[in-house]
Design a protein that fits this description.
heterotrimer, A mainly alpha (about 425), B mainly beta (about 110), C alpha+beta (about 160), B: about 110 residues, mainly beta, Immunoglobulin-like, four-stranded antiparallel sheet, C: about 160 residues, alpha+beta, three-stranded antiparallel sheet, about 15% helix
C-alpha cells in the first residue's frame, strides 16, 4: 500500500503542476524602488494644467491611462463591468463615415483584426473574422451595435475590446460603423493581390542572420561594447579585475540562467536588473535599467553564452512562486483594450495570425532568446522590458518601471518556454 | 556612447585567383532624414548623411555608390570585385559633414 | 583589448566612439574633391522631375530579360528595405554596366542611389538597404556602357503599425 502512495505522489508531482505553490501568492513580494532611467520608471506627474501626464521615452505618448488596470501587483482593479446598451434612435448611420472610422489608425483600427473590401485596405489582419460579407447575414443593427460597444455581452471570453465601454468610440461613431458593416455584401470581387488578404498573405521572411555584423547593427554595437568590460569605474575597478580570463570565458554559461531569483534582493532579476545593482556595487559605475551602458553590457554578457541552451530555474519554490505570478500576469486582462498577453500570444487565441501587417508570435515557441534585439524601425536596441513597456501604449495601459518585479516575473514565465533552446543575441526584428 | 563610423566588412573565407567575390559592408551612421516643421516646411540645416561610398581594390576605384537620404540608417552595401591579385580592398564612406570612415580587407588566396 | 588589463574609462569610451580614419591615397583624391563640389544626387522632388533630371527624355527600355531585382514585395517597415540588383553583363571594357540607379517613386527624395561600376567589379551585382516612405513603385534602372537604359519596377507594400508601431 505504501509503495503505491509514493508512486501516486511522484506521478502527481511530475504530471500536474497544480499544487499550492502555483496559486499566485502576492503576500511576500518585496517593494522595489526603481533605479531605471527617469523615462523608464513609468512615472506620472502633474502637467501644466493639473492633469497627470506620464514620463516616458522620447516620442512615446504621455497619456495617463488612469481608468484602466495595470500589471502592478497592488493594482486590484478588475475588468471594466460589461455594458449592455441600446442603439440610439435618431442618428442616421453614414456608411462613408463608418468606413473611415473602421480604417482609422488612431482608433482601432478595426481593420487590424478584420478584413474588409477595398484596394486601399492595407494591412488588414486575420486575428478576427473576415467582415467582407457581414451584411449578408442580415444581423439586426442593435446586435451589431452591442457587439462593437461591448462584445462580452454575447461572448464572455472574447478578445474584442469593449470599444464603447472603454470610451474609444462614441455612440454616434458606432452607429456609423454599423451602417457601414450592413453595406458589406457579396459577391466579393476576386482578389487581385493575394498579399492584401491576410488569409493568403505571405508570412514575413524576417531580417536574416542576426549574428552577422554586416546585417545587424546591434552586433557592431555589442562588439564595441566589450571595451566596457575592461573600463575602470569610479571605484578604480573594472569587471575584468574580478572576472578574469576575458569576458567570453568568464561569462560563458551565466546568461542562460537569467531571469533568476536573487536571494540578496529577494526578487527575480533579469541580467539587466542584476547589472543595475551589481555594477555600482563593484566598479562604482551606475548602470540604470534602459541606459545605453546597461543594454550594451547585457549584450556583451549574453553573447558570451550564444549557442548555449536557455536554462532558467523553474523548479525551486522561489521560482515556482514567481512563475505562478508571472503566468497570472500573462493571462490578466488589462488596459483600455481589456487585453491579456495571452489574447494575442497563444495559439488558442490569435498567435500565428496577422494583426495588421504583423504575425502574432506564440509564447510557447520561445520569444526571449534573441533579446536584447535590434529594432530596425527604431534603429535602437530594445531589451525585453522596453518591449513590454511598448506593448502597453497601444493597449491603453500605464507602463511600469523597466526594472519592476512584475515585469521580471512575467519575463521569467516567458523565458521558461525557451528552456533548452540556444541563446542567439542580439536579435534583429522590425 | 557613439559608434558612428564603425565599419564591418565580410568577404568569403576562401578566395581563388580570378574569383568574382561578393563583399558585404555595414557602417554605423545616422543617415539623418529631412525634418519638417509644424507647417510641413523642410527645416533648413546641413543634414548629416553618407553621400558617397568608394570601393578601391589594389588602389584602383572599382565601384562608387552616390547615396541620398533615402538610404537606410546604418546602411548596408554589397558589391563585387574580381580577385586578380592579393592586396587591399578598401571601402570608404564619406558624409556631408566631412566625416570619412573606412574599412579594409586584406585579400589573400587560399 | 580583452587581455584583462584594465584601462581608464575615458580611453575605452574613445575607442567606442570611433572616428574617421586616414586620408585618401593619391589615386582617390580626384574622387574626393569632386565629391565636395558635386550637387546632391538626392533632391526633394517628384519622381517625374527626378527622371527628367537624370535621364532627360531618353528612352528607357524594359530590362526584365537581363535585370534581376530582388526586393521584398512586402516591406516589414519603411526604415530598412533590402534591395539587390543583378544585371546579366559580360563586364568587359567593351560592354559593361556603367550605372545602376535605385529610385523609389513615392519617396520625398525619390533617387535612392546611383552605383557606378567598372569592369574590374567582375559582375554587376550590388545591394543596399533603402528607406521607403510609403507603399509604391521602386525601380532599378541600368545604364550600359553604350548608353542603353533599361528598367525593372516593382510595387512594394510597406507594412505599418501592429501593436501600435
Amino acid at each position: 500500500m505504501r509503495a503505491l502512495c509514493w508512486v501516486a505522489l511522484a506521478v502527481m508531482g511530475a504530471g500536474c503542476a497544480g499544487t499550492a505553490l502555483d496559486v499566485p501568492d502576492y503576500t511576500r513580494v518585496p517593494k522595489w524602488s526603481s533605479r531605471a532611467l527617469p523615462e523608464a520608471r513609468g512615472e506620472l506627474r502633474a502637467g501644466p494644467d493639473g492633469k497627470r501626464v506620464a514620463v516616458r521615452y522620447p516620442g512615446w505618448t504621455t497619456r495617463d491611462f488612469d481608468r484602466s488596470a495595470t500589471f502592478a501587483y497592488d493594482d486590484a482593479r478588475s475588468e471594466p463591468p460589461v455594458q449592455r446598451v441600446t442603439m440610439p434612435a435618431g442618428i442616421v448611420g453614414d456608411p462613408g463615415k463608418g468606413r473611415a472610422l473602421f480604417l482609422n489608425r488612431s482608433k482601432g483600427p478595426c481593420v487590424a483584426c478584420h478584413l474588409v473590401p477595398g484596394d486601399d485596405v492595407w494591412p488588414a489582419g486575420s486575428a478576427g473574422p473576415d467582415q467582407s460579407t457581414i451584411g449578408d447575414r442580415r444581423l439586426p443593427d442593435q446586435y451589431l451595435y452591442q457587439v462593437v460597444w461591448d462584445a462580452r455581452v454575447f461572448f464572455p471570453n472574447t478578445v474584442m475590446p469593449p470599444w464603447g465601454t472603454a470610451g474609444i468610440f462614441s455612440a454616434e461613431e458606432i452607429v456609423h460603423i454599423v451602417a457601414y458593416l450592413q453595406t458589406l455584401k457579396g459577391p466579393v470581387a476576386p482578389e487581385k493581390d493575394r498579399d492584401r488578404n491576410p488569409f493568403t498573405r505571405a508570412k514575413p521572411p524576417g531580417f536574416g542572420d542576426n549574428l552577422d555584423p554586416t546585417n545587424n547593427p546591434a552586433v557592431v554595437l555589442a562588439e564595441d561594447a566589450e571595451a566596457l568590460w575592461v573600463a575602470r569605474g569610479p571605484s578604480g575597478k573594472a569587471c575584468a579585475d574580478c572576472h578574469e580570463g576575458g569576458v567570453a570565458r568568464a561569462m560563458r554559461g551565466v546568461a542562460p540562467q537569467y531571469p533568476r531569483f536573487v536571494k540578496s534582493y529577494g526578487r527575480v532579476m533579469s541580467l539587466e536588473d542584476y547589472l543595475e545593482v551589481h555594477t555600482p556595487a563593484t566598479t562604482g559605475q551606475a548602470m540604470p535599467s534602459e541606459s545605453a551602458e546597461n543594454l550594451a553590457m547585457t549584450m556583451v554578457v549574453k553573447r558570451a553564452s550564444n549557442g548555449l541552451p536557455v536554462s532558467v530555474d523553474v523548479a525551486s519554490p522561489d521560482a515556482r512562486a514567481a512563475l505562478a505570478r508571472g503566468k497570472a500576469t500573462f493571462y490578466r486582462k488589462v488596459g483600455e483594450r481589456n487585453h491579456a498577453c495571452a489574447d494575442c500570444h497563444t495559439i488558442e487565441s490569435a498567435a500565428g495570425k496577422f494583426l495588421g501587417g504583423r504575425v502574432l508570435a506564440d509564447v510557447r515557441s520561445g520569444l526571449t532568446r534573441h533579446f536584447p534585439t535590434w529594432r530596425t524601425d527604431r534603429a535602437e536596441v530594445w531589451d525585453m522590458r522596453k518591449r513590454f513597456q511598448w506593448c502597453m501604449t497601444p493597449l491603453g495601459m500605464n507602463m511600469l518601471a523597466a526594472d519592476s518585479i512584475e515585469y521580471a516575473e512575467l519575463e521569467l514565465y516567458l523565458t521558461a518556454f525557451d528552456n533548452g533552446k540556444p541563446l542567439s543575441v542580439p536579435g534583429i526584428r522590425h | 556612447m557613439s559608434d558612428i563610423g564603425q565599419v564591418r566588412l565580410r568577404i568569403p573565407s576562401s578566395i581563388k585567383p580570378g574569383d568574382v567575390v561578393q563583399v558585404r559592408s555595414l557602417i554605423i551612421h545616422p543617415m539623418e532624414r529631412v525634418e519638417r516643421d509644424a507647417q510641413g516646411k523642410i527645416v533648413a540645416k546641413n543634414y548629416n548623411y553618407i553621400n558617397k561610398v568608394v570601393v578601391t581594390y589594389l588602389g584602383k576605384t572599382i565601384a562608387v555608390f552616390d547615396t541620398t537620404q533615402s538610404v537606410a540608417e546604418n546602411p548596408f552595401f554589397s558589391f563585387t570585385f574580381k580577385a586578380t591579385d592579393p592586396g587591399q580592398l578598401k571601402v570608404q564612406f564619406l558624409d556631408t559633414t566631412g566625416g570619412r570612415y573606412e574599412g579594409t580587407a586584406d585579400i589573400k588566396f587560399s | 583589448m580583452n587581455d584583462g588589463h584594465a584601462i581608464p574609462r575615458r580611453e575605452a569610451l574613445k575607442a567606442l566612439g570611433a572616428l574617421g580614419v586616414g586620408a585618401a591615397a593619391g589615386g582617390l583624391a580626384p574622387a574626393m574633391s569632386a565629391h565636395a563640389q558635386a550637387p546632391a544626387l538626392g533632391q526633394n522632388e517628384s519622381v517625374q522631375d527626378a527622371m527628367k533630371r537624370l535621364f532627360g527624355g531618353k528612352t528607357i527600355k524594359d530590362g526584365s530579360a537581363v535585370i534581376k531585382f530582388d526586393i521584398p514585395l512586402i516591406a516589414e517597415n519603411g526604415s530598412v528595405v533590402p534591395v539587390a540588383v543583378n544585371v546579366d553583363s559580360p563586364m568587359t571594357p567593351a560592354s559593361y554596366v556603367k550605372h545602376i540607379y535605385v529610385i523609389a517613386d513615392k519617396n520625398r527624395i525619390p533617387v535612392v542611389t546611383r552605383v557606378t561600376l567598372s569592369p574590374e567589379a567582375g559582375k554587376a551585382s550590388v545591394g543596399a538597404n533603402i528607406r521607403l516612405g510609403e507603399t509604391g513603385e521602386v525601380r532599378a534602372i541600368v545604364e550600359q556602357s553604350d548608353g542603353t537604359l533599361l528598367q525593372v519596377a516593382r510595387e512594394i507594400k510597406v507594412t505599418v503599425g501592429g501593436c501600435g508601431g
